[in-house]
Amino acid sequence: MNTRKLCVALGLTFAVASAFAESPQEASIRKLIQPRLGDGAAVDSVTKTPYSGLFEVRVGSEIFYTDAQAKYLFVGRILDANTTEDYTKARVDELSKIKFSDLPLESALKTVKGNGKRVIAVFEDPNCGYCKRFRQNLQDVDNVTVYTFLYNILSPDSAVKSKNIWCSADRNKAWDDWMLNNKAAPTAPEACNTPNDKIKALGMKMRITGTPTIFFTDGSRIPGAIDAKGLEAKLASVK
């Protein structure tokens, strides 16, 4: 079976599996594995895979594998021996997808460059050095609409800086001034309301653990400060 057909088969396998309740064997494996993962780690699903009798154990967006008796736990990636395609990464990417239209875009900064036909959403912290690098890279990308969610997770004063920016007369300019030129926004009025808490709760629900995290209209995400060339390539691949 070639790589493309195998990928389709894997997708169908997991799609069908997710549409039904766990089998008795999968439920049994869940019960055996759960105590071995330690406190705070909850098994979300157990699914039989096409990989030599292995079972996928999903904990949040993380994937592990075990055998039919739950005797061994495999931590790592499954690759195609011929093409080196990473099937575990493909599965994690699929699990990490969102419905782009569900994002509360009214609670984001909106910047339109050129015709703005290509659209991304970015979760950023004002104290994030990698976010500032990404902002520099964005200057070389045209014909894009960028929705920026101020996601305050790095420092106690991140929320303060975000409030000052959100409450500025020109939010986009205040954001660019800070991220590109290190020019702080004026102190916001106490009575000014922000979506800070709402966005932080949303980011946690979406399991965003670092900034920047970039989302595309197909629901996929890329964590980290991707360069302009990489962003252009990704945008070209989004249908």
TrEMBL record:
Signal peptide extent: 1-21
Disulfide bond in keyword set: yes
A family per Pfam: DsbC_N
Keywords associated with the record: Disulfide bond, Periplasm, Redox-active center, Signal
Domain Disulphide bond isomerase DsbC/G N-terminal span(s) in chain numbering: 22-88
InterPro entries according to UniProt: DiS-bond_Isoase_DsbC/G, DiS-bond_isomerase_DsbC/G_N, DiS-bond_isomerase_DsbC/G_N_sf, Thiol:disulfide_interchange, Thioredoxin-like_fold, Thioredoxin-like_sf
KW Lipoprotein (keyword) present: no
Domain Thioredoxin-like fold: 112-235
Superkingdom of the source species: Bacteria
Subcellular location: Periplasm
Known role: Required for disulfide bond formation in some periplasmic proteins. Acts by transferring its disulfide bond to other proteins and is reduced in the process.
Family: Belongs to the thioredoxin family. DsbC subfamily.
Protein name per UniProt: Thiol:disulfide interchange protein
Species whose genome carries this gene: Noviherbaspirillum suwonense
